[in-house]
Amino acid sequence: MREFEFTRATSLDGAAEQFASGGEAAFIAGGHTLLPAMKSRLRMPDRLIDITGIPGLDRIERDGDRLWIGATARHATVADDATVKSAIPSLAKLALLIGDPQVRNRGTLGGSITNNDPAADYPAACLALDATIETTGGRYQADDFFLGMFTTALADGEIVTRVGFRLPQAGAYAKFRHPASRYAMVAVYVARFVDGWRVAVTGAAPAVFRWTGAEAALAAGQPTDGLLLDPSELNSDIHASAEYRAHLCTVMLAKAVAELV
After folding, report:
1. Average pLDDT of the residues of the chain
2. Is the Cβ–Cβ distance between 83 and 168 less than 8 Å?
3. Is there a domain that residue 55 lies in?
4. Which of 37, 200, 220, 240 reaches 20 to 30 Å from 11, CA-CA?
5. Within this chain, do residues 151 and 234 fall inside the same structural domain, yes or no?
6. Does 209 fall in a domain?
7. Residues 6+ apart with CB under 8 A from 115
8. Which residues, at least 6 apart from 156, have a Cβ–Cβ distance to it below 8 Å?
9. Span between the terminal Cα atoms of the chain, in Å
10. Residues in contact with 244: Cβ distance below 8 Å, sequence separation at least 6, in sequence order
11. Distances from the Cα of 197 to the Cα of 27, 67, 187, angstroms
12. Cα–Cα distance between 1 and 84 in angstroms, integer?
C-alpha cells in the first residue's frame, strides 16, 4: 500500500469538494473492499475521504410505504434496529447474515451497494424490495442501478445518501453461505407485494439479477420446486460448479417461499 492523504468530510458538499480537488480520490466508510484492494495495489488513490461523520447519513426512518436507511448505517445497526424489524423483518435478518460481527460492525449499506459485489447481500434486497436509491446526483430505481459485476449507474464522485425499501406484504431471504467468507454461494430474496412478486438472486451469476420465471410462477400460484436456471449463465469456480449453483437457486427459492408462507 502506497502513501495517501486521509481526510474527513463533515458535509456532502465538503466531500464533493475534496473529491474534486485533484488526483485520484476515493470515498471510504467501512472500507472492507477498498482497503484490501489498496493493499494489493488494485486501487491506488491519492486521497481517502471518510464520509461516516456526515450528520444524518446513517438515519433510519419509515415514511409512508418505504423504509429509508442512510448510506452509512452499519450492518449491525440494520440487523438490530426496531424500525427495521417492525417494517421489514426479512431485511433485518439479511443484515444479520452478513459476514461476521467485525464486518457487521464496520460495513455499511451504502458501501455494499456501491461496490456491487456479485455475492453481496444488499443488492438482492434492493432488487427484491423495489428500492429507490438516492444519491447526490439524483434518484435511481434498483432495476436500473446494478449494471454488472462491481458496476453501478453511479457517476464518478457521486455519493449514495440513502436507500428507500418498499414495504412488502411479506418477505424472506434464504442464503447458502461460503463457510469462510460468509458471502453468498447463492442467496434468494422473495418479496410479495399487492401488485405482484419480486425475486432476486445473488452469488449465482456475475451480477445480482431478478428471477422473472420464479416471479411468474408465484404470481400464477404454481409450484416452484421444478424451476431451474440455465447453468450456462451462472458462475463456476473452485467453490461450486454452475450446475450446483443452479440447483442451489432452486433450493434457496423453496426455502424462502416456505419461510414466507
Report:
1. 95
2. no
3. no
4. 37
5. yes
6. yes
7. 33, 150
8. none
9. 50
10. none
11. 35, 18, 17
12. 38
Sequence length of the chain is: 261
- Rounded Cα gap, residues 161 and 72, in angstroms: 8
Q: What is the pLDDT of residues 179-224, one digit of tens each?
A: 988 999 999 999 999 999 999 999 999 999 999 999 999 999 999 9
Instruction: Cell numbers for 211, please give them.
Output: 428471477
CATH of residue 11's domain is 3.30.43.10
The verdict on 45 and 66 lying in the same domain is no
Counted domains in the chain: 2
In this prediction the pTM is 0.95
122, 130, 250: which is closest to 192 by C-alpha? 130
Domain span including residue 45: 5-50
CA distance 37 to 80: 29
Judged by DSSP in three states, 84 sits in helix
Phi, psi of 47 (to 5 degrees): -145, 135
C-alpha angle with apex 48: 36 to 118, nearest 5 degrees? Answer: 45
Q: In this structure, is residue 194 part of a structural domain?
A: yes
Which candidate, 232, 230, 185, 183, places its Cα nearest to that of 211?
230
In this structure, the answer to whether residues 154 and 252 fall within a common structural domain is yes
